[in-house]
Design a protein that fits this description.
This protein is of the alpha+beta class and about 1250 residues long. It has 26 helices and 60 strands. Among the domains are: about 140 residues, YVTN repeat-like/Quinoprotein amine dehydrogenase (Methylamine Dehydrogenase, Chain H, 7 Propeller); about 180 residues, no CATH class. Helices cover about 25% and strands about 30% of the residues. The strands form 15 sheets. Strands 14-15-16-17-18 form a 5-stranded antiparallel sheet, with no helix packed on it. Strands 27-28-29-33-30 form a 5-stranded antiparallel sheet. The chain is elongated, with a radius of gyration of 38 Å. The two termini are about 65 Å apart. This is WD repeat-containing protein 11. InterPro entries: Beta-prop_WDR11_1st, Beta-prop_WDR11_2nd, Quino_amine_DH_bsu, TPR_WDR11, WD40/YVTN_repeat-like_dom_sf, WD40_repeat_dom_sf, WD40_rpt, WDR11.
Length: about 1250
């Protein structure tokens, strides 16, 4: 038996189409740099940089309603490598956690059978990075272990939960958006469910309640409108007509500043300050504007990406709150104002096409992906364009300036940089607009624009008719392309290349739904469509011939086709010579495809055709043999007769004859072909076609066991008939045997033999699924049934290779499956992508870490290189190849920067952590870069104090306020004062006023506090108390006795449970350090850190924060990563190095100490040398284990005594041959710094 032909390897894949309404919220852009999107029950993984689908995950039976990438805010090593992990939840309540690269499910979780409302991974990664919180309708929140699928706890609430949001600054805070209001949970923890029912807050509509407005100058127009929307947040349940929360679309904490939250309504965004539970900003849409659907707040800048109902994405930036000199400071900040800075084009919204969701790249926050209901994904990038300095700055929002630093360090004179790397490298601090920047370059004003950089589109709405192009043979192997034609309901034909899964061509061929397609060559096909019937039952038929390379398309039947019976099917003969067109109520037509002529229109009394198939047998070979023989005889005769003639002439004659016979061969050899068909009684007719003669052959009487025959398939000596009752009849023509098999599956819609010589597999389609049969053994190989294995209905089937089938289904997808027809995800590494994708997460764990080390440790022996083969790296060639592919896929801009000698170590670390989407690394290096530079600057200017922070002079820039407590004290104080000023302007009740006065006292703003205390009205129960307090605040003198009395009263208050009041009194007498100590004793660590930042001098505040860092390191709190950041902000660099080393973060520790030495904030002495030696030696060992021997040798040589042993092993144990001698010379030279 001849083995089957081997096909070009096609991956199993899914071509997806339009989305289901429930897919609306199922999209997420992860730190890993990829977008996950639900499409019916599948999940697409999209690479936004190249706009390709690189994986489709199939396992859900129901519609996917949520997808969430796991966070990357932990240290990556071999035990916890860079890996792609995704959680997805569907409408039946099932959650699956995926390993995306292999396409396998880690674990499956099921609690109830209702759609999951919301889910997210816990971000406090020192606990465990496998924990997943999900909302199971109607009112449960459940914490799952996403690795094992174990349930940790479950808690129910009184109202239905719609969604939730984690506080990005405090892991124990969680806010739930419920059907009636908001529930704030402050004791969220992974170990036990929240104890209380949380604090419920209701939102009263601004129109239903009287406005508590303080008498002020009457505002005009727009201001008035904004005051109206001042929303009151109350703790009482509002009356029925006041409930407006049900139209609240979304609630999110702001990641850019602590304790702020946004609420989204169709026509406005409210910004709440949670300390006051008070609206401090409103973004409202004018009456003619387009309503919001969704808003995504940014972390790097106080900015909002908003999606509107017309598919327009807008970027709004918070206006700088520092008042400009010519403005009255009272007027300046009545609101947080978000100015519109950029917007992209809208899409055309129709009944079926509407925008669903927008997702923002979390690493760089400067690109957005818009998901549209028709399956399109539009990729927008934000670009900064330099603009001329405006002459009249007062006209619009204040200008934006680009920062004068790159990756956390001021730019060198001729340093290469990419301005559009991330949002914070495009726009400088808005707070800095008043201050004069320092730096080598002048500030450049910029404008922001959205640019469409990618578009993915899906299949149109079903139904589909699909047909695979003719199979691969030995003759066409050099130019074969596996093309699949998909006919759609709007009359166009889409041609997909199945190697890449990309759309090859889209051709608008018909004006009605395409009913069928038949290929006539590898580059051309015929397709037909029929209009809906008129009152006589007649239709307009279209039969078009399409040539793919040129796109030329013509009506194959010429003028025919108007007002006739509908075409039922078209069948092309095996040699692509003839075409049979079968009509519903009219005899069939027989055409010659090569000439486009009608050979025969059958007589009126011709039987009605129910099924028809061409025979694979023909006489082309014998014809060719006969022709060749005739030609040889002719040639022989001529040479014998004309031997006298000159040889020149004879050669000319033979050439002419040759040309003639070739022309004959291609034109007029008409091989004999036959077809069989059945009539309504089940009788089988046999008809032969040769040239333009048509002969009727034998007739075979019907088989009694079969019903009306619906389809026929013929290959080799096997003929298979299928009927409307689900019986299959297998005829062996050689042995003249027939065998009937009842499948009990109803109407047999289609049967098709697989391509390939001797391959007798048969694909059968029923109304409720499909089966693959082996006709040799007459047994079923595999089966697919709607409702049992899959949730979709099959619309059309075909073979795409000898062992893979392609199915079109009513969920709008076309799936290429193995013969077993198990829908499965494919392995990503087996795919042929058209464009290479930069994603280190696709590499095996070890290779991913090697790639990172390769980029961090440039230059290698003095050379900057992007070629891994240039360095001494011992590893399997295929792994090297994979790493090199990743390096090659980096953009040229990034490659240039990575090879720029001006790029210093800190910038390199920040840039690489950005490229890898490594959240933990990025945060560590951003804070480290900032404080290393500010302490180095302070040291140069001779400011004393190395470990306890001596107040450094204002550095070149601040850390962004999203780093909260880690910012410099001066900047932090200014921010808090601005904030309390805003709260004061917005307060609307006595409660608010009291809170503001308390804040002002803590901040030391006594005069303003006294004014607020005196505002209390006489009928208020606290009137007497507040008046006395005001007197106390104004009369406090620093005399000994009064101080000691107040201190005594304060300590008594604290002892009796009035902590806040006691702390206030201590702050009044400048004993804030004691106040911090009391706060820490009573477990108010965050409050103490805040107070230390705003009230204490550097040395005292440093003590408080160090105690906090110790507390964070304790085993019951276990937030070492946060403690490291706190210590960095205090300049305790030696301690940080020790902690990194003890936590076994060897690469981080070694590079950090290297940076400290370079900036001169760590001296080499006995204490530090021990740490340096140990760290460098451990890093060398790590590099050696990765195979980077050259790097290992370099770090070992710098580790002093600790590294000698490693060096010896490197040059002995690993066959120190001639190839290592150049390396040894390198080592003897003084150590090369990696700058």
């Amino acid at each position: 038996m001849i083995p089957y032909t081997v096909n070009i390897k096609l991956a199993a894949r899914t071509l997806t189409g339009t989305l289901h309404l429930q897919n609306k919220t199922a999209v997420d852009w992860g730190w890993q740099g990829l977008i996950a999107q639900g499409c019916h029950s599948s999940i697409l993984i999209i690479d936004p940089k190249t706009a390709q689908t690189i994986q489709v995950l199939e396992r859900h039976k129901a519609v996917v309603v949520k997808v969430k990438w796991s966070r990357e805010n932990y240290y990556h090593s071999l035990s916890s490598p860079y890996s792609l992990r995704l959680a997805s939840a569907d409408a039946s309540g099932k959650i699956i956690v995926w390993d995306v690269v292999s396409g396998n499910a880690h674990c499956e979780i099921q609690e109830h059978s209702k759609p999951i409302q919301d889910m997210d991974w816990l971000w406090n990664q020192d606990v465990s990075r496998d924990l997943l919180l999900a909302v199971h309708p109607p009112n449960y929140i459940v914490l799952w272990n996403g690795d094992t699928g174990a349930k940790l706890w479950k808690k129910s609430y009184a109202e239905n939960i719609l969604s939730f949001s984690f506080d990005p600054f405090e892991p124990s805070n969680l806010a739930l958006l419920t059907s009636e209001g908001i529930v704030f949970i402050t004791d969220f923890s992974h170990s036990k469910p929240p104890g209380s029912g949380g604090k419920k807050v209701y939102i009263a509509s601004p129109h239903a309640s009287p406005a508590h407005s303080k008498p002020a100058a009457q505002p005009t127009g727009a201001k008035k409108a904004l005051n109206k929307v001042k929303v009151l947040i109350t703790n009482e349940k509002p009356t029925a007509e006041a409930v407006t929360l049900n139209d609240c679309l979304q609630l999110s904490y702001l990641p850019s500043k602590r304790n702020h939250m946004l609420l989204l309504y169709p026509r406005e965004i409210l910004i709440l300050d949670l300390e006051l539970s008070q609206t401090v900003g409103v973004v409202a849409i004018e009456r003619s504007g387009v309503p919001f659907i969704q808003v995504v707040p940014c972390a790097q800048r106080d900015a909002l990406f908003c999606l509107h109902e017309n598919g327009c994405v807008t970027l709004r930036l918070c206006r700088s709150s520092s008042p400009s000199p010519d403005e009255d400071p009272e007027q300046s900040s009545h609101e947080l104002v978000y100015d519109l800075r950029s917007q992209c084009d809208a899409i055309r919204v129709t009944k079926t096409v509407r925008p669903y969701r927008v997702v923002i790249c979390p690493v760089n926050e400067n690109s957005a992906a818009l998901v549209v209901s028709d399956g399109r994904v539009m990729l927008w990038e934000l670009r900064a364009h330099a603009s001329k300095t405006s002459v009249n700055p007062s006209s619009g929002p204040s200008p934006l300036y680009s920062p004068v630093s790159f990756c956390g360090t001021p730019l060198g004179q001729d340093q290469k940089y990419v301005q559009d790397l991330s949002l914070n490298s495009m726009i400088g601090h808005s707070m800095m607009s008043g201050a004069e920047p320092q730096g080598t370059r002048p500030q450049q004003e910029v404008h922001l624009k959205f640019l469409l950089t990618g578009l993915l589109s899906g299949l149109p709405l079903p139904p589909f008719a699909i047909r695979m192009c003719p199979p691969l043979t030995t003759k066409n192997i050099n130019y074969y392309q596996p093309l699949l034609a998909v006919g759609t309901s709007n009359g166009s034909v889409l041609v997909y290349n199945l190697t890449s899964g990309l759309l090859h061509k889209e051709l608008s061929v018909h004006s009605f739904e395409v009913r069928g397609i038949e290929w006539v060559s590898l580059t051309g096909f015929l397709s037909f469509a029929t209009s809906s019937p008129n009152n006589l039952g007649l239709v307009r038929n279209e039969l078009q011939h399409v040539d793919l390379p040129t796109g030329r398309c013509f009506a194959f039947r010429g003028e025919r086709g108007n007002d006739e019976s509908a075409i039922e099917m078209i069948k092309v003969s095996h040699l692509k010579q003839y075409l049979v067109v079968v009509f519903r109520d009219k005899p069939l037509e027989l055409w010659d495809i090569r000439t486009g002529t009608l050979l025969r229109e059958m007589a009126k009394n011709f039987p009605t055709v129910t099924a028809l198939e061409w025979s694979p047998s023909h006489n082309l070979k014998s014809l060719k043999k006969k022709q060749l023989a005739a030609r040889e005889a002719m040639a022989r005769q001529t040479t014998l007769a004309d031997t006298e003639q000159s040889s020149v002439e004879s050669s000319v004659i033979s050439l002419l004859q040759d040309a003639e016979s070739k022309a004959e061969l291609s034109q007029s050899i008409s091989a004999r072909e036959h077809f069989v068909f059945t009539d309504t009684d089940g009788q089988v007719y046999h008809i032969t076609v040769e040239g333009n003669t048509v002969r009727d052959g034998a007739r075979i009487p019907p088989d009694g066991s079969m019903g009306s025959i619906a389809c026929i398939a013929w290959k080799g000596d096997t003929l298979v008939l299928g009927d409307v009752d689900g019986n299959l009849n297998f005829w062996d023509l050689k042995a003249r045997l027939s065998r009937g098999v009842p499948t009990h599956r109803g109407w047999v819609k289609k049967i098709r033999f697989a391509p390939g010589k001797g391959n007798q597999k048969l694909l059968v389609m029923y109304t409720d699924g499909a089966e693959v049969w082996d006709t040799k053994e007459v047994q079923m190989v595999s089966s697919l049934r709607v409702g049992r294995n899959v949730s979709y209905r099959i619309l059309d089937i075909d073979w795409c290779t000898s062992d893979k089938v392609v199915l079109a289904s009513d969920d709008g997808c076309v799936r290429v499956l193995e013969m077993a027809m198990k829908s499965a995800s494919y392995r990503m590494d087996e795919q042929d992508l058209t464009d290479p994708v930069w994603c280190p997460y696709l590499l095996p764990p070890r290779a991913g870490l090697t790639l990172k080390a390769f980029l961090l440790l440039q230059p290698w022996s003095g050379n900057f290189t992007m070629d891994i083969t240039h360095i001494d790296y011992k590893e399997k060639e295929e792994l090297k190849g994979l790493i090199q592919e990743q390096l090659n896929s980096l953009s040229n801009d990034i490659k240039l920067i990575l090879q720029d000698p001006e790029l210093n170590l800190l910038q390199r670390c920040i840039l690489v952590s950005r490229l890898f989407g490594d959240e933990a690394d990025l945060q560590f290096w951003t804070v480290a870069a900032h404080y290393l530079q500010s302490f180095a600057q302070a040291r140069q200017l001779g400011v004393p104090g190395s470990e306890g922070q001596a107040q450094a002079p204002t550095p070149h820039s601040h850390l962004d306020i999203c780093h909260d407590i880690l910012c410099e004290s001066s900047f932090f104080q200014r921010f808090q004062l601005e904030r309390v000023h805003l709260q004061e302007v917005k307060r609307s009740s006595y409660e608010h006023t009291k809170k503001c006065a308390d804040q002002l006292l803590l901040l030391g703003q006594t005069d303003r506090a006294v004014q607020l205390l005196l505002e209390t009205s006489a009928d208020n129960p606290s009137y007497y108390c507040d008046s006395l307090k005001a007197c106390l605040v104004t009369t406090i003198t620093s005399s000994g006795p009064s101080q000691s009395t107040i201190k005594l009263v304060a300590t008594n208050m604290i002892a009796n449970g009035k902590l806040a009041e006691g702390v206030q009194l201590l702050c009044l007498i400048d004993k804030a350090a004691d106040a911090c100590r009391y706060l820490q004793t009573y477990g108010e660590w965050n409050r103490a850190a805040w107070l230390a930042k705003v009230r204490l001098n550097a040395a005292e505040s440093s003590d408080v924060l160090k105690r906090w860092a110790e507390h964070l390191c304790s085993p019951q709190v276990n937030q070492k990563s946060k403690a490291i950041l706190v210590l960095l902000s205090l300049g305790c660099f030696h301690k940080v190095g020790e902690m990194l080393h003890s936590m076994r973060y060897f690469d981080c520790a070694a590079l950090f100490i290297e940076a400290c030495l370079k900036y001169g904030v760590m001296e080499a002495n006995e204490v530090t040398n021990k740490l340096i030696g140990a760290t460098f030696a451990d890093y060398a060992r790590l590099l050696r284990s990765m195979g980077l021997r050259e790097g290992a040798a370099l770090w070992a040589s710098r580790a002093g005594g600790a590294g000698e042993e490693i060096l010896e092993q490197l040059f002995q144990g690993e066959g120190a041959g001639p190839d290592l001698s150049p390396g040894e010379d390198d080592i003897q030279t003084p150590p090369v710094t990696t700058d």
